[in-house]
Amino acid sequence: MKRFLPPAVVVLFAAAALADNEELGPKFQVFPADNPWHWDVSRFRVHPDSPKFIANAGADKPMHADWGTKYGIPYVVVTAKQKKQKILEWQYGDESDKDPYPIPDNPPIEGGPDADPGSDRHILMIDRDSMMLYELWQVLPCEKGKEKGWKAGSGAIWDLRSNDTRKDGWTSADAAGLAIFPGLVRYEEIERGVIDHAIRFTVQKSAKKYWFPATHHAGRGDDADLPPMGMRIRLKASFETKGFGKQAKVVLEALKKHGGILADNGSDWFFTGCPDKRWNDDDIGGLKKVKGGDFEVLETLDSKGKPIAPPGVKVK
Question: Which terminus of the chain, N or C, has less C-beta within 10 A?
C-alpha cells in the first residue's frame, strides 16, 4: 500500500517520552497470556494446503531477520503526562481510531524522519501508565490551515489488557488489522532467553482473505493458494538449530513454539524486530540459513471457520 505523500514542515510539541525502545521488563504484559500472539502452537495440526502456501511464498527463499543494529521498527514508551495530538489528516480514516495519539518530540519513525514518504513510516507508542498501545502507519508532518502536526495513512489504539480485535474488515497500522508491537522481536527478550509470542512476518503476495486473528486483507491476487493474512506458520520441530548463534537460537525456538503470523505485504519471509545497538548482526544474519520450506502452515480454523485454540483457551 505504498503511495506518494508530499512532505511538510513539522512543529514539535512538549513531550513526556522516555527512551526509545526502553526495556519494558518481564512483568509488563503485552496482551493477556491467553492472547493469540502468546499461544503455544507446537501441537497444532499442519494445514492440508501447507505445501501450496509455502510454495507461493518461496520454499527455497531464505528467512530474513529485518532488524539489527541499524534496522527494524522502533517504538517509544511514554507516560500519562505525554500530550496527545489529533491526527490532522487520514488516508483510511473510516477504519482508523481517531482519538488523539501521544506523539512525543522527535518520535522514532520506521526508516527515520527522512524515510521515503511512500514507505511504511510506522510510529509505535506505548503508554506504560494506562497500558495502551498506539500505532500509526505512514506518518508524515502536516499543515492544515493554521494547524501544524501530523497526517497518517491509518492508525489503531490497543488496550494491552484486552483480547479485543479490530472490527471485522478493518485494517490497523498493519494490513492484517493486527497490532504490530506484540509481534516484534526485542533485544530484552533475547537477554532473557525467551520470546513468548509469535513473530510478525511478511510475504510479497497475499490472498484476498484473512484468518483469525486478522481482520483485514490487502490481497490483489485471485489465486486460492496465496497465503491469507493472519496465516500462522511454525518452524518444523525437526529443524536443527545446532550451529546457530545464541541470539538466533532464541528466535528459532520461539518459531517452533509460538510460530509466526502473516501481518503485512512486503518481501517474502521477512520477520520483524526492533533496532538495538546490542544486536550481533552476524549472529542474527545466520537466520538466512532457514528457508521457507523449513516452515509449515498450521490449521487454525475449523470446518465452520471458527478459530482453533490451544486446550483450555476460549475465543470470544
Answer: C
